[in-house]
Design brief:
With 461 residues, the protein is of the alpha/beta class. The chain has helices spanning 173-186, 200-209, 230-247, 267-283, 327-342, 369-386, 427-443, 450-457; strands at 37-48, 51-61, 66-73, 79-84, 87-93, 111-121, 124-134, 139-141, 146-148, 151-152, 155-159, 190-192, 212-216, 253-260, 289-293, 309-312, 346-350, 391-396. Helix 3 runs parallel beside helix 4 (267-283), helix 5 (327-342) runs parallel beside helix 6 (369-386) and helix 6 (369-386) packs parallel to helix 7. The structure holds beta-D-glucopyranuronic acid. Residues 17, 195, 260-261, 294, 312, 350, 397, 414, 416 line the site of beta-D-glucopyranuronic acid (BDP).
């Protein structure tokens, strides 16, 4: 420690652009179990002709003398299929599928899987019971499409953070309901849990409202060669095990993201991501896997292993300041380079501009609301060139302004939100809203009435 610091002086350094709050951020629940109990349930779903398939696997702890009864109930609480034992397949003729927001009515259709255990133990007979919401849907990826229930799906949504005034990262139901209200208002059908797993309640809301999730683990800031060691890789795999175990049964989760902006052009990143992605696929063969890159397409060593290319770029923000006229060319080149190299669908997983609410400037200058709008407009022109070809999504950075460490680059936090930290809209929010509803109407609902229909059906309006 240089001599201009007091002896023993310590400051924790973090290598990411959000605030590292301390303390308990979510509810802590204590619960008891019977001697023999249902420890875990894994559900995967499929569709065969007009029947839905629900495959279940149940793990029971501390007991060998037990019976399991499984029942699937529809939204009206009518039993539509039943089974027994630790694993099996339930067939639901004429199943109601789980569809993303705007592809069907709200709320999204959920069945309930009831699992009832009865066991003989040394202390006598015991029973255990669990209900799991189940959405029947399929996810698949082709060379150029992301398919949900066999239909091309276009992610038009946001990246978020668990962050707000007063509460910081602390879980807050009113805030969650407000955020969902804004997502529905916006016509957003997806978000990425940048850059860590979110509270389980968030995913439960996504299941209910059909908001599709790219579920990201906390591997952010893997930027130094030593971050790609075997120790780090093994730890990373354990973290993916925890994430998959926790979130595997959410129909809203359609893809795992194993990292955000790692130094994936390092030689050692190739083996590292091959191993982490292969491991994640083995844990859950039912979902595609990605990581979010900002490396050059020609240098990226991890990209060969992902199912979908998720690429971040900040044209006319972190370089070519003010030169909005370059965006379309640069974005088009970015997409073409990635696609010709990998022939995989691409999501623009971040783009945006720092914007101080209430700053106005004509002609648009950086940090003004006009600049954010103009930058988005240029991106949208570039995205529209490739949408429907092989670009399968766009996620704005960021849903709302959020707190970061203090640095000379940040004015009271990161201001790339289309909403302020208090969830008030900047001009860009209206622009994005027009766009998302237009995309929804073009691609899902051919009838222009879709916007009002969906808003009327919204549980929050
Ligand atoms: C991206 C990061 C994100 C940052 C954003 C930004 O993924 O965490 O907050 O840039 O600079 O590189 O605003």
């Amino acid at each position: 420690m240089p001599s201009w610091y007091p002896k023993g002086y310590f400051v924790q350094n973090t290598d990411f652009d959000f605030f590292n709050y301390a303390g308990l951020q979510r509810s802590v629940l204590l619960y008891t179990t019977p001697t023999t109990y249902i420890d875990d349930i894994t559900v995967t779903t499929g569709v065969q002709q007009d029947s839905g398939l629900v495959n279940y696997q149940i793990s029971v702890k501390r007991g060998s003398q037990f019976e399991l009864e499984v029942r699937l109930l529809d939204a009206e609480n009518k039993v539509v299929a039943a089974g027994t034992g630790t694993q099996g397949q339930l067939k639901v003729p004429g199943a109601n599928l789980w569809w993303p927001y705007l592809m069907h009515e709200l709320p999204a259709y959920l069945y309930s899987l009831e699992v009832r255990l009865t066991a003989q133990t040394s202390v006598g007979p015991v029973s255990d019971f669990y209900t799991l919401p189940v959405g029947i849907r399929t996810v698949a990826v082709t060379e150029s499409q992301f398919l949900i229930n066999g239909k091309p799906f276009y992610f038009h949504g946001v990246n978020k953070h668990e962050d707000s005034d007063i509460r910081g990262k602390g879980f807050d139901w009113p805030l969650l309901v407000k955020d969902f209200n804004l997502l529905l208002w916006l016509g957003a059908n997806a978000f990425r849990t940048s850059h860590y797993p979110y509270a389980e309640e968030v995913l439960q809301m996504c299941d209910r409202y059909g908001i599709v999730v790219i579920d990201e683990c906390p591997a952010v800031g893997l930027v130094l060669p030593q971050h790609f060691s075997n120790t780090s890789m093994n730890h990373h795999m354990r973290v993916m095990e925890e994430l998959v175990r926790r979130d595997k049964n959410h129909p809203a989760v359609v893809m795992w993201s194993v990292a955000n902006e790692p130094a994936s052009s390092l030689e050692s990143a190739g083996y590292y991501f091959k191993m982490v992605i292969t491991h994640t696929k083995a844990l859950d063969p039912s979902r595609p896997v990605t990581f979010v890159t900002n490396s050059n397409y020609a240098a990226d060593k991890g990209a060969p292993y992902v199912d979908v290319i998720c690429v971040n770029s900040y044209y006319s923000w972190y370089h070519d300041y003010g030169h909005l006229e370059l965006i379309q060319l640069q974005l088009g080149t970015q997409f073409e380079n990635w696609y010709k190299t990998y022939h995989k669908p691409i999501i623009q997983s971040e783009y945006g501009a720092e914007t101080i609410v209430g700053f106005h400037q004509d002609p648009p200058l950086m940090f003004s609301e006009e600049y954010q709008k103009a930058l988005l407009e240029q991106y949208h022109l570039g995205l529209d060139e490739k949408r429907g070809k092989y670009v399968v999504g766009e996620l704005i950075w960021n849903f709302a302004d959020f707190m970061t460490n203090q640095t000379p680059q940040r004015v009271l936090g990161n201001k790339k939100g289309i909403f302020t930290r208090q969830r008030q809209p900047k001009a860009a929010a209206f622009l994005l809203r027009e766009r998302y509803w237009k995309i929804a109407n073009e691609t899902r609902y051919p009838h222009s009435a879709a916007k009002s229909q969906c808003l009327e059906n919204s549980p929050f309006t």
